[in-house]
Amino acid sequence: MLFGLRKLLGVATFALIVVLLGPKLFVLFDNPKNATVPAKLFEAREYVLGKSVPVLHRYVPTNIAGSDRSDWILIGLAIVVTIFSGAVAQRAQTAQNRRLLRKSAQAWRRKEGVKPGSRLDAELETTLRMAESDKAVNRQELLRVFAETKKKLDTFGREVAFLAIDVVGSVGMKAGEDPASIQYDFEEYRKLVERIFRARGVLKTAWTPDGVMACFAHVEDACQSGKDVIKSLKVFNSEVKLSKADFTVRCGVNAGLVYFDDSTPLETISDRVIDVAGHMQKNAEPNTVLVARKIIEPLRQLEEFTHTSQVIDGYEASVWRDKAA
Length: 325
Known about the structure:
Helix content: 55-70%
Strand content: 15-25%
Shape: rod-shaped
Keywords: Membrane, Transmembrane, Transmembrane helix
Number of strands: 9
CATH class of the largest domain: Alpha Beta
Order of helices and strands: HHEEHHHEHHEEHEHEHEE
InterPro entries: Nucleotide_cyclase (IPR029787)
Radius of gyration: 38 Å
Distance between the termini: 75 Å
Structural class: alpha+beta
């Protein structure tokens, strides 16, 4: 709207220049008022000056070097107003673009799961502030900033796999048991799981009292870790634990592109890839590994998994069971 107003003022200023200065050119001709165009210009000039000069005299002096220069002063004021309106329009547009940039960046943060305070968040904030400090933040600038931001996001994006494990019936296992024995059993169980994870090159873990979410660089490592935990529970239940109830677990695996950096705790990462892994675990049977079928199709040990009729979060699921059980 402001740019439209500035354009109208520019047209009006040009018309004012023609009306006020045009007749000065025709005074060089003989009897200019006898011709239609010059006559119209002289009439228009007299009308504009007649309406504006009395008002102009109230506020500014118009005599310069002994001559009335109202026409030139009017033109000068019109030019100043036009330039000023253009500057206001440009500032308003820049402010709007900055707001759009910030709003779009916040939406991008939420979509990509960028956590406040993370190194990636700091990188994005630096880029945004540099763009906002520019005097002319236009649409091309927005596109440039988002292109740079996308490159930075890509450097933090990794194809990783997530393994969710939960102890089945953990509340019931603790009922009627000696608290010291229960504490010992769960501490030893955690040590067992962490040893298996380290052997498979775990990247990050996030523990709850009776469950864990682990991040691995490869789907094979996530799946094999789940298998190893289930297989290791046979010896654990017979030789290590003190409580009566045996430990059984449910495992869920999923993989995909997730944005995070090495300093980001796993529990602060919010991503659908992780959510699906958790839902796979919740729908798994005891002592099985339930996995989104699409992520294991390239694996060499695909034959170890059995296709199921389960569809979880839109993904067909396959299951691994210990044949020796």
